Amino acid sequence: MASSSSSLYDESGRVVEFLAANNFIMALEVAKSLVSGHPDSALANALTALTLMKISLRDSNVVRRREYIASALDFSKTALALSPKSIAFGFLNAKIHLANAHDDAAIQECESAMSIEDPRDPWLDYLGIINEGYDSDPQESSKESRIERVRTELRKLLVKAKRYKFKRLVEDHSLAEINKEFQALQDRKEEIQTRFDRERQSFEKMEMPSPSTSTRKLKKVLSNVDMITRARDYWNNGMSLEAKKDFLSVRIEKFFHKNKSMGVKAKEMLAEAVEYAKETKSWKFSTCCCCGQRFSDEELNLEHIKSTHLGTFSEELQSVVPKIVPASEIEIGDWRPVNVVAAAKLIEDLSRNDSANKGQDEGKSQDLKLKNLPHCNDINRGMLIKSIWILLQLFIEIECFAPSHFYMLLDLILEMLKNQIPETLLNQSWMKTTLVSVWFLDEPELESVQEFLIEELGISCGLQGLYTSFHRDKARRDLTITHESIVFRDDALSHLIPLLDETSELASRSVDDIKNVGQEYRDNIVQWLFTGGEPIGEKLKEWEKYREASKSLGTELFKIIESEFHRLQNMCERKCKYLRHEKLWLDMEGICLEEDKRRKEISGYPQSYRSLLLKRQKDIEKEKSIEEMGSMELDIIESVLKKAQADNDIKILFQMHIHQMGGKCFKSDATILATNAAMQQTWNKLTMVTSYDYRSIVVPLLKTFMRAQLQDMVDKYATEKSNAEIEVLLSELNLNAKNNTGREGVDARQGQGKSKNKKKKKDHRKATGGSEDQQGNVEQTSVPAAHGKDHALNPEIVGPVTTDELEQEERELTRKAEEECRVEEHRRMLARHLEYQRQIENEAKQKRLAEIDKA
Predict the structure, then answer these.
(1) Spatial separation of the C-alpha atoms in residues 395 and 454, rounded to whole Å
(2) Predicted confidence (pLDDT) per residue in 197-229, tens digit
(3) 183: Cα separation from own chain's centroid
(4) Whole-angstrom distance, CA of residue 267 vs CA of residue 273
(5) CA distance 223 to 232
């Protein structure tokens, strides 16, 4: 026995070495030799099973792989039968079942191995070979610690088996090509959107300019800063409220006939726009991408396209489009991990209270339990639960979470919780009907649930990509710039009033209120008029180019809508087929359930399920005309009769197919909702591409016209103001000149009097014949010869007075020359003042430009 045991272990070691070196041929040869020499050895059978399983996993030939797996399963069962207390061999058996896609059998083997009491296993050292990725712990020297480690690995395998069970349940390989097409169309839409954004930015100048572009644009605005300054001054200080009202209310007739900047095309476009606005009371319009028909309402355009150019679904197909699970289904409380032990105790205590108070409202009792659930601070579990909640929010936000998804997820959670939490918790009604159950899952189960949502909904159905696309579109909408608006002033629709933006408070006012907006544009209107404004001809070309590009992109988007429509139609038809099959399986299961009920109620000879199915088959065949459903039912009955004989096998087959139909509907619903959401996204893009606003071309025309008008008014105002200032200055100068003249006249008269007196004295001296000194002496010592009598002067002695007149004329000429000099000096001062003012304004402009360059 010692020699035999030694040989067994030696050969077993060789098998392990070959497996570790991936030499599977030699490993299988030694293993078969080993089991041939030791057929009753559990270890020999287990190693052979392990070798066959590893070979099967690496063989691409499906037939050989099945043969290897079947053979491995036989050896594994033999090993487990020879050593039923071996937890490691139970683990191996479960792995082989899982590799063979026997998920339920794998789950059962895991649960059986975990329930072994006092396992006695000399083969734990081989676990590293059985379970790839298992790292042995040097500190696990005791058998108990090693067994506990195996139980941990078993639980992970159990979770994996349950996850695979649901994965295979919802798996539908036929959707692979559909999902590829779905993603290709999403990429195509993104490309079209990018092209449209480029065209719209080119037309509306919505692009974010580079710093150098911004500088050039601002320089262009500030290059005419003198005109803007003068216009603002005129608007704020020189223009009456009535004048502002008249200026802001532009007569359409005047706009047409006195607008020098408009050519023939511009006038035609303006006439078209105004006529449309008068008729529809709106500047916006939408055109059909197929026939070009124009609509004042976007929704009317979409309805026209759907009914005239696309088509609609039948009522049956519309009925299978799933509803959306409301957000309230996940807004059920605090999404945090629950302390399972404390929760079980709480439920038991509350249940006892319920029994004592039978009259208490059951709903109130459930609310009390949910509100008082004891949470715990398990960080890893908390993060996973939060991640699951975010995923669910994401799917609901894009309207891609159907009831079939909700219930499949709930089934997966309850499957994970089976045999993991007390029955008192598992049997609570809210555990089976709400997603509160996810709070009770442990970390491995939570990871599996998260993986299921990401892979089976997020990736395979393209929902994550759709979510990203939706948020990209939302970001685009948030960047949309509102249009400058225009309203008609009166009922006759003869005047236009500009508003600076469509969302302004003014836009919602009555016509009477809008008439009084002059003061409210105190700081805005001038800046608005002198900002932007490319040549009208260029704007018209851009408008035509934009319309043409939009039409082309709209046609491309409609083709995508057609593809999405046909895909949605096909998926709805496919789901109808699944639902018919599901109904047939349920009907046949119902026949068997009726028999079960009859057996319980009536004693006697029971009828087998097989006989009942044969009877049903004959009844259908007797019908004169077998409809489609009857033909499908016959196919199903024939299939069941071939595969199963015993009642239990038939029942299992029914349940398996019913679950399969549920799984197919799970993926169908995901694809239907994803296509529906994508199609709605395409409709939104088509609406955007085919919608126009006449204001985008009328506003520049109106702006150019009003700017030219305002410039003329400003120039006229500046001229009048300058002339008035000169007149005031000249008046002041004339007044000063008159004052100066008056003073000089007085001085002249006083000077003339003195001159005459001096002349008389001089003439008197000549008559008496003495010098002035002598004359003075005579006056002092003698008395005149004829004192008291008047003596006439001799003209010859006095002489002519022409010298004084000449002096007076000279003074007058001097005064006039000085006055003209003063006037000229004032003129020069005024010119210097105006030049100085212009210099200050120019320096201010240069300073602002320098600051912009620096920025």
Answers:
(1) 10
(2) 888 888 876 434 444 444 555 555 555 677 788
(3) 19
(4) 10
(5) 15
